[in-house]
Design goal:
Elements lengths: L1 H8 L3 H9 L3 H8 L5 H13 L3 E6 L7 H18 L8 E5 L11 H18 L4 E3 L7 H14 L4 E5 L5 H10 L3 E5 L14 H17 L3 E5 L3 H13 L8 E5 L4 H9 L3 E8 L4 H10 L1 H14 L1
Parallel strand pairs: 1-2, 1-8, 2-3, 3-4, 4-5, 5-6, 6-7, 7-8
């Protein structure tokens, strides 16, 4: 399987240099990451919301090694929120954050990440929107869920992400559904050992459906993070069986993937949120997108052949 190989490459400085230097890289990256600055991304936000879509914004970044870098990540989100304020989009433009960017992996990282993310959650609430805490590898999840619980005491709309390939996730979903959380369910994009995660696509998909049923039947707000047409159809059926209205769950897909499907779902009255990343430190995010879906890798390889 190529996925684990690509994920390993996402952590390689040598591969980062090779991919970044390739002439074809920028136009391909632009498919997934439409800007590097707030000024570049604001027209994208206005265009997508004007088409009836919603967004979750991710300021990309990897390998935070100092408290100062973590504070810079915090400030980048605060700048984004400040620039969103006059647009008055409310929850149509929310934020997604990785706690690793806020210092989670540093000494005293749990407290540091909580300290840095809280101002972002507070600022988002002030403009009528919210923040979702992204899931990373399994070693970070206990800290992420503890920070999520802490933030929800003052900001109950704070969301989190769970990953169907992890064995623990069915229990996490039951707890979160009972607590009325906003929960994005994804398959998972990190290389995880067989001791903690399913390794086969069929097992991951079956777990996804089981977990999604739990979320749909619970008290929370499910966010279906998938581009898989079969899982989207299953989600619609599970929502119907659970008696959910169209505004009681939403679909989420990545910017640059299945754009026609984004518009189709929105036209049918579904809440359709586009996960839109921007920033200069795009390499790790880009490589995970290639690892998640063979079609993405084929797209990149074709571009290397035809434009390299």
């Amino acid at each position: 399987m190529l996925g684990p190989v690509i994920l390993a490459a996402s952590r390689s400085d040598r591969m980062r240099r090779l991919v970044s230097a390739a002439p074809v890289t920028k136009p391909v990256v632009d498919r997934f990451i439409p800007g590097e600055t707030v000024d570049e991304i604001l027209p994208i936000i206005q265009d997508l919301t004007g088409k009836g879509l919603e967004l979750t914004m991710d300021v990309v970044g990897e390998d935070i090694t100092t408290p100062e870098q973590a504070e810079a990540a915090r400030d980048a989100y605060l700048e984004l929120i400040d620039r969103l304020k006059p647009l008055e989009l409310g929850t149509r433009a929310e934020m997604s954050v990785k706690l690793s960017m806020f210092g989670q992996a540093l000494d005293g990282g749990h407290e540091l990440a909580l300290k840095n993310v809280r101002p972002v959650v507070e600022a988002a609430a002030e403009i009528g929107t919210t923040v979702t805490l992204d899931a990373e590898d399994h070693t970070t999840l206990d800290s992420m869920f503890a920070i999520h619980d802490e933030l929800r005491q003052d900001f109950p709309q704070t969301g989190c992400v769970i990953q169907s390939y992890l064995f623990r996730t069915e229990a996490d979903a039951r707890r979160l559904a009972a607590n009325g959380s906003r929960v994005r369910l994804v398959k998972g994009a990190y290389k995880e050992p067989a001791e903690v995660a399913y390794q086969q696509k069929a097992e991951i998909d079956k777990a996804y459906v089981r977990i999604l049923r739990t979320l749909m039947e619970g008290d929370g707000y499910p966010m279906i993070g998938s581009h898989d047409p079969r899982l989207i159809a299953i989600a619609q059926e599970l929502a119907r069986r659970a008696g959910r209205k169209l505004d009681e769950y939403e679909f989420q897909m990545l910017y640059g993937i299945r754009g026609d499907e984004h518009l189709r779902l929105a036209a049918e009255g579904h809440r359709m949120r586009v996960y839109t990343a921007y920033g200069t430190d795009w390499y790790g995010y880009f490589m995970r997108r290639l690892a998640e879906k063979p079609a993405n890798l084929r797209f990149f390889a074709r571009s290397m052949v035809t434009k390299g």
